[in-house]
Amino acid sequence: MAFIEARGLRYRYEAEEGSHEVLHGVDLDIEAGEFVALLGHNGCGKSTMAKLLNGMYTPSGGTLTVDGISAADESRQLDLRRRVGLVLQNPDNQLVAGVVEEDVAFGPENLGVPPGEIRRRVDEALKAVDMYRYRTHAPHKLSGGQKQRVAIAGVIAMETQCIVLDEPTAMLDPRGRTEVMETIQKLNREKGITIVLITHYMDEAVQAGRVVVMDDGNILMDGPPRQVFSDVERLKRHGLDVPQATELVYRLKAAGIDLGGSPLSVEECIQLFRKRLV
Amino acid sequence: MLSDITLGQYFPARSPVHQADPRLKICLTIFSIVLIFSAGNFFSLGLAVGYILLGMASSRTPLKLYLKSLKPVLFIIVFTGVLNIFYGTGEPLWQWGFIKITQNGLLNSLFVSIRIVALILASSVLTFTTSPTQLTDAIERLLKPLGKLGVPVHEFAMMMTIALRFVPLLLEETDKIMSAQKARGADMESGGLVQRIKALVPVLIPLFVSAFRRAFDLATAMESRCYHGGEGRTKMKQLHFGAVDWLVLLTAALALGGFVALNLAFPPSIVR
Q: I need a surface site. Which of A34, B127, B180, B197 has the fewest CB within 10 A?
């Protein structure tokens, strides 16, 4: 059984004007230790998916289990949340305390972990995201990337097995974006934490081991980045971007210059050009 | 400009007063205030003031800061001081029509002024040496027994913590919105009072909208980090009642003893 298992998962928002279904029967398996990028344009149901995964929403139909826990079981909501941590887009709005280390301690404190153990977890989490030396700082004095790393530390201090990040880099500058991406990769590689990264940046999606593309409440494509991004036409038809390097080679091909490949990064692109020119 | 405001007046330093348990500091502040108000003569008042001065001296905080904290209440001090001069009883030292100044009036005025100054200084010792986080923490723990009576102590403490965290953020945001509105031609610096208040509306509305959005986000973040109220919650930082605290407590006991003795030994200085 996969770590995350969704079968015919549906979710409906109930509003006064009537209900509105955003997920129409999603089937998705994510294994423990995977790094999955979730793509799709606004309103395709990615954020809803994120909130279903850690029990903020309960499924309207179908089943969703995480580590064997059913998301429909409200009595086990806390168990679900301690396994799946959520990191949101705006770094300012998700930090609770006025001191970095106390914010990181917030999760374990809620779980009723003994004080000495909290201290150990907080220090370890802050070291893992390379923010240990800022532990006594006030969050509003940190940069966006640093704040987002503190938010990630707050999640791993709960010893979660999976982190769902909902556009964590959307409000950051390029440097902050790199910091966060490096942190995520490190956690995935070294601690084996399952990562579900929702993003609009294709160059971030390329770093994942698997890309899942959602469109209008359904899963459109699912596979390794190279496979997904090779179908440029299909992605474009659904209003999605591809990495810049892929796009360049695709357009050259359309103009009659076939470089014979579909690169994902700038380096790969340069390789292709070199091969062609030399 | 707005973001320059520092919240609270915490002055970081390493001193015995800084190291003392914040719970003890809160209690001692209340203790000093009680002393100041129950002082009947200049001798016991002097001792209470001396005790506060001792706290100031051992806090390793510049005297300038303490004097600065008196500035906002200067008017009240002068006002009550002057008022008390004219309300004395006994033989007038100087008289002009119905206005008379007596020795008793002068003494009363001095007594009351010292009281107010001491009051402000006592609370300054607390706020200069204790960070807002420590204060919230200490208040939560001191009020814990009230939780049994159904008072939502944890919830209040949580609100304080969140307020402390978000005030600098909202100040920064106000600054940003004001610049944005000015860039669109809003005029906030001219006109009468009514006009200026009206000019603030385009600042307040976006500020409120954004505050609500932040609140929703924060609620999601807190819930997803397993927050479910104060029940079964632990704290990383435990407050320890250590050697420094016993020493501080000892000085308080000594001060109390001396205070009671002086209060009984000398006649009251102020007579109504």
A: B197
Residue with tokens 């309960």: A58
| List of residues 6+ apart from A35 with CB closer than 8 A | A184, A185, A188, A194, A195, A197, A207, A208, A209, A210
B226 closest CB neighbour out of A99, A110, A115 = A110
Residue B55 contacts residue B126 (beta carbons within 8 Å): no
B204: which residues sit within 8 A by CB, 6+ positions away? none
**Cα(A208)–Cα(A230) distance, integer angstroms:** 15
Of A51, A94, A105, the CB nearest to B218: A94
User: From CA B22, how far away is CA B45, in angstroms rounded?
Assistant: 25
Chain A residues in contact with B225 by the CB 8 A cut-off are 81, 85, 96, 106-107, 110, 154-155, 158
- pTM of the predicted model, to two decimals? 0.83
Contact A141/B262 with Cβ under 8 angstroms? Answer: no
Contact A264, A228 (CB under 8 A): no
pLDDT over threshold 70, residue B153: yes
Strands B92-96 and A69-70: unpaired
The mean pLDDT value for B140-154 works out to 89
- CA distances B59 to A65, B20, B56, Å, are 57, 10, 5
- Residue extents of the structural domains in chain B: 13-130+240-265, 154-224
Beta-carbon separation of A93 and B172 below 8 A = no
The answer to whether the CB atoms of A94 and B233 lie below 8 A apart is: no
Q: Flag whether pLDDT at B271 surpasses 70.
A: no
CB A176 within 8 A of CB A149: no
